[in-house]
């Protein structure tokens, strides 16, 4: 059996050993080495941003106020799955789902976000909620001016977060594009409202302000589809 040998004793650190390893030049500048960044910035010109009169643009991927997005035909992308609320480490998001019906189709599929709230008194803008969203319904904008006079005003509701309707979109609720499933929406196959969707809204909400623009977009899409079919 091999004989066990005790570990070798370490060399004691003495003043002589420290003096032998020291460098006079390093020792000379050691007290001021920590101020290197400070000294290097002392002689640079100072730049004062004139906020709020002059607003400096943020970086493209800045995490600002949230936004609930829509599909090209106007239906909402949020399906009320609550994954964003589960992913939020600050418990700042409240989601309550509702059931889609033929007369109240708000989003593709079976459910939609009936209630959606974000408490910006709690939100830490980490972005975990948008990573968890399966339909890219929730994104973060570059808007950072969120101060307000009351605490209640910093609890944003669905109406505050929902993206505005772009030109050519048809305000929900209305049926899905005929012959499609929710998967077609997720894959980006829906690019505009259709004539049948416009007709449905016109029969149920004849005074809807989005009807003229949506009708124009639907006719243009129908005409281009017909031209491709003939070719």
Notes on the protein architecture:
The protein is built from 9 helices and 5 strands, in the order αααβαββαββαααα. It is elongated, with a radius of gyration of 30 Å. The protein is an alpha+beta fold and 231 residues long. The chain has a 3-stranded antiparallel β-sheet. The protein has a two-stranded antiparallel sheet with strand order 1-4.
Q: Name the helicity range.
A: 25-40%
Structural class label: alpha+beta
N-to-C SSE string, H for helix and E for strand: HHHEHEEHEEHHHH
Distance between the termini: 91 Å
What is the CA-based Rg, rounded? 30 Å
The spatial strand order of the largest sheet comes to 2-3-5
Largest sheet: 3 strands, antiparallel
The residue-averaged pLDDT reads: 88
- Helix count? 9
Number of strands: 5
Could you tell me the strand content as a percent range? 5-15%
Low-confidence stretches: 227-231
**What spatial form do the alpha-carbon principal axes imply?**
elongated
Topology of helices and strands:
Elements lengths: L14 H7 L2 H10 L2 H7 L23 E3 L14 H5 L5 E7 L11 E9 L8 H5 L5 E3 L14 E2 L1 H4 L20 H5 L8 H10 L6 H20 L1
Antiparallel strand pairs: 1-4, 2-3, 3-5
